Amino acid sequence: MKEITAQEVQQRLEKGEKLNLIDVREVDEVQAGHIPGITNIPLGLLEFRTVELDKNKPYIMICRSGGRSGQATQYLQSQGYNATNMRGGMLSWEGKVE
Fold first, then answer.
1. CA 43/CA 73 separation, integer angstroms
2. The pTM of the whole model exceeds 0.85
3. Domain count of the chain?
4. Residue 97 in domain
5. Which CATH number is 42's domain given?
6. Coil, strand or helix: which one is 35?
7. Residue 80 lies in a domain
8. Which of 39, 43, 44, 65 has minimal Cβ neighbours within 10 Å of its Cβ?
9. 98 lies in some domain
10. Strand 21-23 and strand 39-40: pairing?
11. Can you give the residue range of the structural domain that contains 14?
12. Please, how many CA atoms are within 13 Å of residue 28, restricted to the half-sphere of its CB?
């Protein structure tokens, strides 16, 4: 499984890179604080919402600590998507939060 650190994601965003960030936490968790520009697809709905994703785009998966996003990454990779897990999740995020 491909992984990226929260610091690497933050550096890429600060450089102005457009990243496809998918937060797989529940709606209430996301409302409590999330990285600006994310798409929220709760893990339980992911298999039903893959039609919204493009197999030609890379995605970075995010959750609270890296567990659920790891599951999401493995699922998407098994379906032919280019997905990377943000290791440590929001607990290790030090960047801007909305």
1. 10
2. yes
3. 1
4. no
5. 3.40.250.10
6. coil
7. yes
8. 44
9. no
10. parallel
11. 3-92
12. 0
